[in-house]
Amino acid sequence: MFKPLPLFIGLRYTRAKKKNHFVSFISLSSMLGIGMGVMVLITVLSVMNGFDEQIHKRFFGMAPEITLTGENGTIHDWQGLENRLKHIPGVKSIAPFVGGQGLLTHEGQVVPVVLTGILPEQEEMVTHLKDKLLMGDIEHLQHFGIILGKGLAMNLGVVVGDQVTIMIPQATVTPAGMIPRFKRFTVSGVFSAGTGFNFDTKLAFIHLSDAQKLMQLGSDVTGLKLKINDVYQAPAMSRQMAEELGYDYQVSNWTQQFGAFFEAVKMEKTMMFLILLLIIAVAAFNLVSSLVMVVNDKQAEIAILRTIGATPSTILWIFIVQGMMVGFVGTFLGLVGGILLALNATTIVNGLQSLFNVHILSSSIYFVDYLPSKILPSDLWLVCAMALIMSFIATIYPAWRASKTVIAEALHYE
């Protein structure tokens, strides 16, 4: 005979035709409910992972993970400092920058701007600015070229090849007195980082040498941008750098300005997981009901098993096996359905938008104008484990009740 006995009988009970069709319906609904809950939970978590990845990619594509600036606003020997920082474990790439604020003017239009002087070849390793260009070329920044955000370019009404004038707060002393400093630049590119952090409406990039001339910094820079292997290690690494470099430098990281936003996104995912877990809990509650009915329906069979030597623990495990089979099958169906739905979520939503001629995710409102999806193995394991644990908990009371069956009472009317 197939061993162990509880597994053999429990599987036979699962495969056997039910006399009570209502009990069969309840068991089927429990199985489908668990599967539906697992499928929905996997899909929602995958979509939220996709949004989280896209937000991180767009944010860290423009904002540095760690920024190091001089105590007095400038760094003199930035090449030497760069060589020191390269030897710190976890540092991926470094790029110098010159930062400042000013006004951009073009044909009577005036807009505020945050200017950043960069070395294109090093900046590309930190922010991947080249990938975000809508038009133009980052290599044309030299000789007073400027790359504008899409929002800035639209506000000024300029395209590649047009000329704009930059006015900065630093004054130039002339015989006529103090006058603001002006310089004409040629638009050499337009970039778009997507909505959400207003990068497109306030950032402009010029070449590092042009920024040094404009700000009269000589060979100095404002600071260094650092890209690291793990963005969540930024606070710890910034503290380490501050301790090693001393008070001559200020070290900041992305969490100090945008940490609350990303924590809110992380908490939202956690809350969605807990809320959608209730779907599986409801299905598990149906499993309790169906197993209680099965136990009542099989009182005579339980009594017969007891009379031929089955112990209460054997009876207990028979019904645990039967209930867990429902949980296993439901979880497996939900896992397969969830993976298939998550993999095709983008295509399905795009198809629905085309069919009904609607645009659910507008780029003017959301960070991402499509429905991204990313499946994480850790999410799959967590969802399946929670579903199986709930199924197991749901079987305990009915199985315990079956193990306490009194033989004489069960066989009284047989």
Summarize the structure in words.
This protein is α+β, with helices and mostly antiparallel strands and 414 residues long. Helix content is 55%, strand content 20%. α9 runs parallel beside α13 and α11 packs antiparallel against α13. The longest helix has 43 residues. 35% of the residues are buried.
Please sum up the structure shown.
The chain has 414 residues and is α+β, with helices and mostly antiparallel strands. It has helices at 5-15, 21-60, 78-86, 120-127, 150-156, 199-202, 208-215, 234-245, 255-297, 299-307, 312-343, 345-356, 377-403, 407-410, and strands at residues 66-70, 91-106, 109-118, 133-136, 145-149, 163-174, 177-191, 203-207, 223-228, 249-253.
List keywords for this structure.
single chain; alpha+beta
Largest sheet: 6 strands, mixed, barrel
**Separation, N- and C-terminal Cα atoms:** 28 Å
Number of strands: 10
Oligomer: single chain
Radius of gyration: 33 Å
Strand percentage: 15-25%
Structural class: alpha+beta
Number of domains: 2
Provide the spatial order of strands within the biggest beta sheet. 2-3-8-5-7-6
Silhouette: elongated
Q: Stretches where pLDDT falls below 50 for ≥5 residues?
A: none
Secondary structure topology:
Elements: H1 5-15, H2 21-60, E1 66-70, H3 78-86, E2 91-106, E3 109-118, H4 120-127, E4 133-136, E5 145-149, H5 150-156, E6 163-174, E7 177-191, H6 199-202, E8 203-207, H7 208-215, E9 223-228, H8 234-245, E10 249-253, H9 255-297, H10 299-307, H11 312-343, H12 345-356, H13 377-403, H14 407-410
Parallel strand pairs: 3-8, 5-7
Antiparallel strand pairs: 1-9, 1-10, 2-3, 2-6, 2-9, 4-7, 5-8, 6-7
